[in-house]
Every structure is written in structure tokens, then in C-alpha cells.
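sorry for the late reply, my laptop died twice this morning and i had to redo everyting from scratch. anyway the thing you sent over, i finally got around to it. pasting the sequence first so we're on the same page, its 446 residues, then the predicted structure underneath. double check i copied it right bc i was rushing
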Amino acid sequence: MNKEISFEDIKDFEEDFSKDRANTLAMNAATSNGINAAAMSHEAKAVNQFGFSVEVEAGKVCNQKQSGRCWMFASYNVMRLEIMKKLNIENMELSQNYPLFYDKLEKANHFLENMLDVIDEPLDSRVVSFLLTDPMGDGGQWDMFRSLVAKYGVVPKEVMPETTASSATRELDTYLTTKLREFASQFRKKYAAGASLDDLRAEKQEMMKVIYRMLVIALGKPPVRFTWETRDKDKKFIKVADITPQDFFKEYVGWNLDDYITVINAPTKDKPYGKTYTVQYLGNVREGAYPVKYLNLPMDDLRDLAIKQLKDGKAVWFGSDVGQFSDRKGGYLTSDILKVDELFNTEFGMTKEERLDYGDSMMTHAMVITGVDLDDEDKPIRWKVENSWGEDVGEKGFYVMDDKWFGEYAFQILLERKYLSEEQQAAFDTEPIVLKPWDPMGSLAI
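ok and here's the structure:
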């Protein structure tokens, strides 16, 4: 074949298409109904029933709406279970607007500090270009959330409720991003004119006042102390009076944040199993925070660890590539739900390793595993998943995920450290290998 596409080539393509009558049927179905609808498998729905041999009590499904806060919602969906147990209440939500405020404040500072770190790099260098790509997105990872909670605590949703801007963050993100790029430009101009880093940090203080003002106007002012009132399952009145967000977390969630760690599955040659990794420039809280760190293990280890925690009555935060072979409305995460290979008459044959290496897959969304169905040999068949897209999708907001999909498209789980073996814990305690900022394991869940 020549470098260009000739009309003879096109004729050959058309003749090849017309050889198989199924191609015309597929064309009619896809053009009339859409690709996913034409490829939807009803058999896969019948196989993946909403039945699980191990289940954890969960709260009412939440809705992140038009925001990229799934990592916050998923974390809170696990944390709030502790409050519900301690206070014997049917359901409650923690304010997702509260950590959103401080995440954006901290991300702004983190971005400006990163700009100072790379002030001597050319503007068109890969690292500067990467950092300027998305200074103020919504996404995050568990260690970023842990850093926010450690510093700022948590509050019930009634104490800092949603605003229009928190439920639909695009407008706010747009203006914050523009402002931060403007500040980055000012840094470089003043540095080129002879300003020192100390001079620029003094400028940063005034810049952060602008960011704070924008956040308060859009999201409201975060509480420093608050009183919260509710009733338990027996209608008994409960009043938590005059408490700080930090003390509310300590008293009613009660987690030792040091005990919670993330384990990943990245089966690529550049990331040997049994090693820990971090990602350059990734984070939000700049000082005194939990750095992003995870231990890479085989997928079967992630399965075993998740099952241990579920059997102990504790839900499991996890990050996955939710858009791959899934039915959002029906609530199915299964590789067999969309028969696009049959529709297009071609195989989609990349391995998990190849998808990571070639940019076809990475963590995009965080959810919570609240159950698992095990076979006679205690091996997982399917998993119950609590999402944060409201009750109008799936089974009142819950999804079913088959184990094959979990193996192919899940990348990260959050665990209590005690569930890891001594060997795994020792491996986690090693100094992490620093990955490039654009490594796929640095992707943020939204």
C-alpha cells in the first residue's frame, strides 16, 4: 500500500465491507440507536445479578452531580459508616463542599509552589507545559483526601451545604485556572526582571488572598466551629455542640489516618511488584501532608485484601476506569456488557499492561465496594459497588461489577494496614520510587 489512500484502496475497503451481510445489519443498528445501544448484551445483565454472599451496610447513595469529586464522595461514603454506627443513625452525609473549598485553596498554593520549583525551566519544557495543563481540576487520590482531613477535619453536610458552584464546578474551575495561569505568568516575568524567590513568595501571599476570596464567594465560608443536630433510629434527639471540624473527625469518625494505605495494580515492566511509588509534583496540601504513596501488587493480592476487609464488615474505596465497557444507566461494570467486538467485527485485544503503556486506560473514577459474591472456593464472582451518581442509575445507585472487569479496569484500593501481610507491610514502608508527573498512575479520579 502506498503512503496515501487511493480511490482504488477505498473501493477495496467497500468491497471488503459488503462481503459480510452482518456488517450492514451492524451499520443499521448503530446508526439508528448509537454504538453502545446496538452493542448492549442482555445476556450479561442476566448473569450479573444483584446478589452477594458478603455485604456491608451502606448509607443512602449520594450524588456528586456535575463535579469531579468522586474521590471525596467515595472517601466520605466509607467514613460516614463509622458515624452512623456510633450514633445509631439511619443515614447521614458529610459535607463534600467543605473539603472542596480547602482542596482548591491548597491546590492553588501547590500549583504556585510548583511554578516556583520550575521557574528556571523553559516555558515550553514538558514539565512546565504539563503543570500548566490543569492547575485547578476537581480530581484527586486518597492520600490527597487524607491530607485534607488531617489538616481540616470533616463536618456534616448541613453545616456547610452544597452551592450551585460546588454541584457544578466547571465555571469556578475555569476562572480559577485562568487566574492561576495569570499568576504563573507574573512569576516568570518578575523573575526574569530580577525578583528573588523570596520576593515571589511575598507576591504569592497576595495571590492567595484573591483565590480565597473567589472560593468564599462561590462556595461559602467554611465553619471553624459548629453545632449539629440530628435524631437516631429510635428518634432520640442528638446534639453535637460547639465543636471544631478536626475534633468532630477525631471523636465521631475516629480513624487513625496512618493506618490507611493504598495498594495499586500496575502490571507494567517499569513498575515491579513489591515496590512503592509516588508521583512527582502530585498533591494538594504542601507541607506536613501525606505524600501520595502506593504499593504495587498483583491483582490477586488486591482481590484477597479487599475480601478480608469486606468480611470484617468494612467497605473498600477503589479507583477504576469506569468508562470502559460499562452500562451507566443499568449499573453494570462487566467486560461482556458491550459486544463492540461483535458489532465492529474486530477484537479489542490489548492487555491491561498495554492499555496503561499506550494511554488507553487509567484510573478515572473512585467508588466503594460494599459487597462480594464468592464461589464455593471463596473466589470472587462479582462485587457490589456504591457509586456517587445518585439513585436514578443502577440499582438505586448501586452497581454490579463482575470479577473479570475488576481485574482489567481496577487500579487502586484503600485498605487498613492490618490486612496486609508482614511482607507486604514491610514493602510498603520502603522509600518510594518517584514516577514522572505524566505517569498514568498519577491520574486523578473525578
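The mean pLDDT is 97.
thats about all i looked at so far, will dig more tmrw
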